């Protein structure tokens, strides 16, 4: 629903008095600008409205609460991250690239990692889980094994993002190195699971 800004809805935005309709995509974009500058705590409905050049009531017609607004912001960030796609035969490279991109995108907006971690049952974090889980099951992990790896990846990624680290080259390298350790461990676990049936067959047919 698009709400036209009438005379009572107009405020003074960064570019002066507002003209024209207010759109959801504009609201989300401005919210991300504020979060990028001052974090989630710096985002208020009044500040958002002032920046948009509308009265607070006009903003509330689109986003009834700050919580609803943050859900829209999360959706936009997940859209920017994209989906997890295996890279050739090396599934680890695809997941690695996806999580590095996730950290880069979400980490640019202070406080959003905390918000996402606190709302893991929301549709978008659940979609992330489904994407990773499907990738892992597609390369041979059992349902239980895929679920275990996703949980470990989630705890590692969210923990690293919640730590007081800046997004500099050193922090990026440390995160990538730790991610490689997790994925290498998952790969070894998959190889053991694949070899287990063959080992069982060997044991059964070997002479006693």
Automatic annotation (TrEMBL):
Swiss-Prot/TrEMBL keywords: DNA-binding, Transcription, Transcription regulation
Domain of life: Bacteria
Name of this chain's protein: TetR family transcriptional regulator
Family matches, as PROSITE patterns: HTH_TETR_2
Residue ranges for the DNA-binding region feature of this UniProt entry: 44-63
Transferase is among the record's keywords: no
Residues of the HTH tetR-type domain: 21-81
GO molecular function, one term: DNA-binding transcription factor activity
Keyword Transcription: yes
Matches recorded under PANTHER family: HTH-TYPE TRANSCRIPTIONAL REGULATOR RUTR, TRANSCRIPTIONAL REGULATORY PROTEIN
High-level lineage: Bacteria, Bacillati, Actinomycetota, Actinomycetes, Frankiales
């Amino acid at each position: 629903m698009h709400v036209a800004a009438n005379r009572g809805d107009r405020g003074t935005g960064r570019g002066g008095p507002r003209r024209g309709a207010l759109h959801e995509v504009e609201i989300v974009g401005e919210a991300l600008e504020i979060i990028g500058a001052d974090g989630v705590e710096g985002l208020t409905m009044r500040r958002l409205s002032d920046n948009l050049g509308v009265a607070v009531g006009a903003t509330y017609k689109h986003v009834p609460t700050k919580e609803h607004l943050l859900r829209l912001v999360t959706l936009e960030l997940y859209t920017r991250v994209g989906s997890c796609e295996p890279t050739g035969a090396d599934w680890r490279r695809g997941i690695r690239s996806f999580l590095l991109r996730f950290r880069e995108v979400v980490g640019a907006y202070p406080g959003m990692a905390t918000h996402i971690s606190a709302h893991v049952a929301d549709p978008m974090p659940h979609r992330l889980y489904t994407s990773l889980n499907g990738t892992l099951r597609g390369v041979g992990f059992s349902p239980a094994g895929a679920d275990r790896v996703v949980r470990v990846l989630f705890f590692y990624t969210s923990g690293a993002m919640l730590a007081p680290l800046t997004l500099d080259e050193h922090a990026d390298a440390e995160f990538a190195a730790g991610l490689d350790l997790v994925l290498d461990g998952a790969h070894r676990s998959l190889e053991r699971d694949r070899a287990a049936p063959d080992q069982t067959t060997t044991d059964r047919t070997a002479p006693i």
